[in-house]
Specification:
The complex is a heterodimer of chains A (437) and B (313). Chain A is of the alpha+beta class and 437 residues long. Chain A is built from 18 helices and 13 strands. In chain A, the strands form three sheets. In chain A, strands 1, 2, 3, 4, 7 and 12 form a six-stranded mixed β-sheet that branches. In chain A, strands 8, 9, 10, 11 and 13 form a five-stranded mixed β-sheet that branches. A two-stranded antiparallel ribbon of chain A has the order 5-6.
Chain lengths: 437, 313
C-alpha cells in the first residue's frame, strides 16, 4: 500500500510504514474491541434488571407463565377476567413458552432485562426459584388477604422456611380418566370410588383390543409417584430428599413396566424429548385410561366428548381412595418494581369471585373452599364425588429439591426398563448416579 | 486499500492527477477508511461472538447458577469434566455421530449432485425439491420423523406390511442413533448437494471432453478429473459439515431427549441439560469451552490436511 504521506517523507522505510500501519491496526482493533466489550458490559448491566419499571408496563403487571396452546391462553385470560370481577382495575399481561420448556427458561427470564413481576409455579417447583421471589405474608397482611382461605395442602407446598411464596389458584387431585365408550364396548362397568389395583388391571385387559390399549403410561418419575401416592407411599422425604433405592418405588415402577411388557395393556415408553404420550394416546382414543390432574378435565372433554369422559379415583391395592393434591400458584419476583401492585393482581386472580368464575368456565378445582360449590355444579355429580373422596383422604406430596434433574434422568433411562435392556433397579441406580446420589 | 483514485487511473509519475480528478478528504486520514468500513462487522463480531465466548470462558471458572450467583472455583470445572462419566459419554456419542454422519452426508450429497449433473428430466425442479428439507425448520423435520418412527408409526406399519418386524427406532440406543443420523441427513444433504453441484458446474466441459478423447471411462473420469477439480468444494462442505455435526442438538432434543439412557446424549444436549435444567451454568460453560477446543482442533487438522488432497488449480 502506497500512501501519499510515504511519498512525501521519502526516508520512511517499508518496515517503518508496516510498523506504523500495524500499530494503527492494533489501535483500531483495540478500540473496536473496547467499544464492543463496553457495549457488552452495558448490555449485561441492562440484564441486571435495575430498571425502575421492571416487570410493569405502565399500570399493567407482566406475568410469565406457560402458554403453549390457545387453550392455555384462554385459561390465563379466564383468571384475569375473573379477577376483574373482584378488582375492575386489574390489568395483567402474560407470555411464555409451552410447559415443557417453561422451567428451563424461567431462570433466564428472571435474570433478564424484561423480568416479569408475576410468575407461576406448580407445586414442587418452588425450591429452585425461591431465591428470586419475595415472601407474600406481609403483603397479604397489608392487603387484608387471609392465607387460611386457601387450600392448606397447596399453601404448604408453596411455602419454604415458614414463608408463603405463592398463592394457589387451584388444588387438584390426581385422578384416573377413562373412556366410557370403550369401557361399555368391553363390558366393563364404571369404576367405583373403592376400586382396587386388581379391578384396574382387569379393566385394562378387557379394553385392550382392536388397536386400543387399556392404559397409557405417562413419562417421568411422577407417573410412578402418583401410583405410590394412591397407596399412601412416597419415595421423597419431607426434607425433599429422593430415596431412589426405595423398595416401594422399585415395585411400583416394576408394576408399570409389567403393564406394558407382561400384561400388554399399555404401549412401552419410548425415548422422546418433552412430550406427553399418555395425553396424546387417551385424547386420540388409542387408550382407555390414563392419569392426570383434574385440571385436564376441560381438555379431555373437548378431545373425547364430555359425555364420554369418565373420572375415577386412582385404584389402590386395598381399594381405599387416597389422593395427592397438585396445583399452581402465583408468585411475585424480587425484581418487580411495584410488588404491591403485583400482589394486588394475584389477590384478585385468586379471589373467590375469580375462582368461582374459572371453576364454572373451565372446570378447574379451585384452591378455596368457598369456591368448590361452583366447581361441583360445573362438572356434575360423578366427578364431584370422586374429587370429594380423594380430597377427604389426601396427602401433601413432598417435592424433591432436585426434581428437575431426577425427572430428566429418569425420563431418559426408564425407556431401557421398558425395552428390557435394564432392570428397574439398574435404571434407578443409573438415575441416582447421574444425580450424584 | 486506502487508494481513492478511480480504478485504473493511477497517479502519474509526477504525482499529478488527470484534469477533473482531485483527492477527497477522509476524516482521520485515508487508512481509517478501511477500518470504518469494517467497523460494523467487527463490532458485531466482538459483541455477538467474541464477548459471549470470553464471557462463557470466564464463567467456566466459576460455580455459577443463574439465580444464585457464583464463586470462583479455578480449574475445578475443567478438571471435573475429565472425570465426569456423563460428559465422557457425550463426547463418545458425538464422535460416533460425526464419524458416521459426515461421510454419509458427503457421499449422499455428492451422489445426488452427480446424478443431477447428468441428463435427468426436470433436474432444475428436482434440485429445488431436494433442497426443501434444508429450507424447512429442523424442529418440524424432527417432530415429523419422531411421529413416523414411533413403535406404531407409519414406518413400522409399512415394514409390517412387507413382513418386516417392527424396528425399535426410539426404544433401543443403537437404533435411536440411526434415527438421529437419518433425520440429520434428511435435513442437510440438500445444502451440500447445491454447493457440490455448483462445484461440478464450474468444471470446464473442455477438460471432460479431453478426458473422453483420451479414452477415460466414467469411473476414471470421476476419480482423476471430477473429484480433484471438485476438491475445493468438497473441502468446504466437509469442514462445515464436521463443525455442524459436533454441535448436533435440536434433532436430539426433539426426538430422544438424549435417551434411551444416554445413548444419544451429545455434548450439546448434555451442555443444555447441565446449564438450563440442572442450573449449573458454570459447569455448562466449561463444557462449551471444551467443545470449542475440540472443534477448533478438528478444523485445524482439516485445514492442515487439505494440502494433501485439495487442488485449487
Amino acid at each position: 500500500m502506497i500512501t501519499p504521506k510515504a511519498k512525501v517523507h521519502g526516508r520512511t522505510g517499508r518496515a517503518d510504514r508496516q510498523c506504523r500501519i500495524s500499530r494503527r491496526g492494533r489501535t483500531v482493533v483495540a478500540a473496536t474491541l473496547s467499544v464492543g466489550l463496553v457495549a457488552a458490559a452495558l448490555a449485561g448491566c441492562a440484564g441486571g434488571n435495575n430498571s425502575s419499571s421492571s416487570g410493569m408496563d405502565g399500570k399493567t403487571v407482566k406475568m410469565f407463565t406457560w402458554v403453549g396452546s390457545s387453550d392455555e391462553h384462554a385459561q390465563w385470560q379466564s383468571y384475569i377476567d375473573g379477577g376483574k370481577l373482584d378488582d375492575p382495575s386489574l390489568s395483567v399481561s402474560f407470555s411464555g413458552p409451552a410447559i415443557g420448556s417453561y422451567y428451563t427458561k424461567l431462570p433466564t427470564e428472571l435474570k433478564g432485562s424484561s423480568a416479569p413481576c408475576i410468575i407461576t409455579l406448580q407445586n414442587g417447583q418452588l425450591a429452585p426459584y425461591a431465591s428470586a421471589l419475595v415472601p407474600l405474608d406481609s403483603y397479604a397482611k397489608s392487603a387484608g388477604v387471609s392465607i387460611s382461605s386457601y387450600d392448606p395442602s397447596m399453601i404448604k407446598q408453596l411455602s419454604q422456611g415458614g414463608k408463603v411464596y405463592a398463592l394457589p389458584y387451584d388444588a387438584e387431585p390426581m385422578v384416573l380418566y377413562y373412556n366410557k365408550k370403550l369401557f361399555a364396548a368391553a363390558g366393563v362397568p364404571d369404576p367405583s370410588t373403592n376400586w382396587t389395583t386388581s379391578d384396574f388391571l382387569a379393566a385394562a385387559k378387557a379394553t385392550t383390543k382392536n388397536g386400543v390399549y387399556g392404559f397409557a403410561i405417562g413419562q417421568a418419575i411422577g407417573a410412578v409417584g402418583t401410583w405410590m401416592a394412591a397407596n399412601g407411599e412416597s419415595y421423597i422425604s419431607n426434607a425433599g430428599k429422593s430415596d431412589l433405592s426405595s423398595a416401594t418405588l422399585k415395585s411400583r415402577f416394576q408394576w408399570l413396566v409389567d403393564l406394558a411388557t407382561k400384561y400388554k395393556v399399555a404401549t412401552p415408553l419410548e425415548a422422546s424429548g418433552g412430550t406427553f404420550p399418555d395425553i396424546d394416546k387417551f385424547g386420540s382414543g388409542q387408550a382407555a385410561m390414563f392419569l392426570n390432574g383434574t385440571w385436564d378435565f376441560l381438555h379431555e372433554s373437548q378431545q373425547i366428548g364430555k359425555d364420554n369422559l369418565g373420572v375415577a379415583t386412582i385404584p389402590s391395592d386395598n381399594g381405599k381412595p387416597f389422593g395427592s393434591i397438585a396445583g399452581t400458584g402465583y408468585a411475585v419476583t424480587k425484581t418487580c418494581s411495584d410488588k404491591t401492585a403485583a400482589f394486588k393482581a394475584i389477590a384478585a386472580m385468586t379471589s373467590a369471585k375469580s375462582q368461582q368464575f374459572v371453576a364454572k368456565s373451565r372446570s378447574q378445582v379451585p384452591a378455596r373452599a368457598d369456591s368448590l360449590a361452583a366447581w361441583q355444579s360445573s362438572v356434575g355429580a360423578q366427578p364431584a364425588a370422586v374429587v370429594k373422596a380423594l380430597t377427604e383422604h389426601s396427602q401433601n406430596l413432598p417435592a424433591a429439591t432436585n426434581a428437575n434433574q431426577i425427572n430428566t434422568l429418569f425420563t431418559q433411562y426408564e425407556v431401557d426398563a421398558f425395552s428390557g435392556k435394564s432392570s428397574v433397579s439398574e435404571v434407578l441406580q443409573q438415575v441416582a448416579a447421574g444425580a450424584g446420589q | 486499500m486506502a487508494s481513492i483514485t478511480p480504478t485504473g487511473s493511477a497517479p502519474s509519475a509526477t504525482g499529478a492527477l488527470p484534469p477533473g480528478f482531485r483527492h477527497r478528504r477522509v476524516p482521520g486520514g485515508k487508512s481509517w477508511l478501511g477500518w470504518i468500513l469494517v467497523a460494523p462487522g467487527l463490532i458485531g463480531l466482538v459483541l455477538f461472538i467474541i464477548a459471549p465466548l470470553l464471557g462463557s470462558l470466564v464463567l467456566g471458572f466459576f460455580n455459577y447458577t443463574l439465580l444464585g450467583g457464583g464463586a470462583f472455583t479455578g480449574l475445578a470445572n475443567f478438571t471435573h469434566l475429565f472425570r465426569d462419566p456423563q460428559f465422557l459419554n457425550s463426547v463418545r456419542v458425538t464422535a460416533i455421530f460425526v464419524a458416521v454422519y459426515t461421510p454419509l452426508n458427503l457421499a449422499l450429497s455428492l451422489a445426488m449432485a452427480l446424478w443431477l449433473k447428468s441428463w435427468v428430466a426436470g433436474k432444475a425442479a428436482l434440485r429445488v425439491i431436494f433442497l426443501i428439507p434444508a429450507l424447512s425448520p429442523i424442529v418440524v423435520n424432527a417432530v415429523i420423523f419422531r411421529l413416523l418412527l414411533q413403535q406404531n408409526g407409519a414406518i413400522n406399519e409399512t415394514l409390517a406390511g412387507i413382513g418386516v418386524s417392527p424396528i425399535p427406532w426410539l426404544s433401543d440406543g443403537n437404533w435411536a442413533m440411526v434415527a438421529i443420523i437419518m433425520v440429520s441427513l434428511w435435513q442437510s444433504f440438500g445444502y451440500n448437494m447445491i454447493i457440490l453441484g455448483a462445484g461440478l458446474d464450474s468444471i470446464s466441459p473442455d477438460v471432460i471432453a479431453a478426458s473422453r478423447i483420451d479414452g477415460a471411462g466414467p469411473l476414471r473420469r470421476l476419480r482423476s478429473i471430477t473429484l480433484p477439480l471438485l476438491s475445493p468444494a468438497l473441502f468446504f462442505t466437509t469442514v462445515l459439515t464436521v463443525i455442524g455435526a459436533w454441535q448436533v442438538f435440536i434433532q436430539v432434543y426433539i426426538m430422544t431427549g438424549g435417551g434411551p439412557g444416554q445413548s444419544t446424549e451429545t455434548i450439546m444436549m448434555y451442555l443444555y441439560a447441565t446449564g438450563f435444567t440442572f442450573n449449573q451454568l458454570g459447569y455448562a460453560s466449561a463444557i462449551a469451552a471444551v467443545l470449542f477446543v475440540i472443534i477448533a482442533i478438528v478444523t485445524l487438522i482439516q485445514l492442515w490436511g487439505q494440502k494433501q488432497w485439495v487442488h485449487y488449480d
